Amino acid sequence: MELQILIEPTLVGMGYELVATERVGRGLLRVYIDKPDGIGVEDCVKVSNQLTRLFMVENVDYSRLEVSSPGLDRPLVKEADFVRFAGEQANIKLRMPTETGRKKFVGKLAGIADGVLNLETETGAVAIPLADIDSARLVPNI
Fold first, then answer.
1. Dihedral of the CA atoms 22, 115, 87, 16 (nearest 10)?
2. CB-based contact 11:47 (threshold 8 Å)
3. Which residues, in sequence order, are CB contacts of 117 under 8 Å at separation 6+?
4. Which pTM value belongs to this model?
5. Do residues 43 and 33 lie in contact, with contact meaning Cβ atoms separated by under 8 Å?
6. Rounded distance, CA 74 to CA 64, Å?
7. DSSP string spanning 69-137?
């Protein structure tokens, strides 16, 4: 079973949003969570305990679980993330270069229409299909 499908209903029921999951190295499973008023250590402990029980019941193979906030450079994974953070600066990396040879863009998220992200860069507006995005992260506003 895909981890996101397994984890997301549990987190939503607890009042959290699943931002992303990743498997790293030898059995490390990272789960990034968020909620409107931010994430604290207590939230991570609460979610970690609940997911440990869920994984035991569902026989999920892992050796170590890390639960944390997505951080200031939060990954943008779902279409709703790009909508929620409209107006914010983001680093976008594409799976394949565009016809101009570019793979990386930095700009202000300017909305989505029909699965295409509008990004305002220093050199002008760019339309990027969401399906072409390999990774996207907010630029920390420090």
1. -40
2. yes
3. 82, 92, 109, 111, 127, 128, 129, 130, 133
4. 0.81
5. yes
6. 22
7. ---TT-B--SHHHHHHTTTSEEEEEESS--TTS--EEEEEEEEEETTEEEEEETTEEEEEEGGGEEEEE
Q: How many CB atoms neighbour CB 142 within 10 A?
A: 4
Residue 116 vs residues 71, 82, 92: alpha-carbon distances, Å: 25, 10, 13
89: exposed, middle or buried (Cβ count in 10 Å: 0-12, 13-18, 19+)? middle
Q: What length does the chain have?
A: 142
Which domains does the chain show, CATH number per domain? 3-68 (3.30.300.70), 79-138 (2.30.30.100)
25's tokens: 């190295």
pLDDT tens, 95-136?
999 888 899 999 999 999 999 999 999 999 999 999 999 999
Distance CA 66, CA 58 (A): 18
**Residue 75 forms beta bridges with which residues?**
137
Residue 6 structure tokens? 């397994």
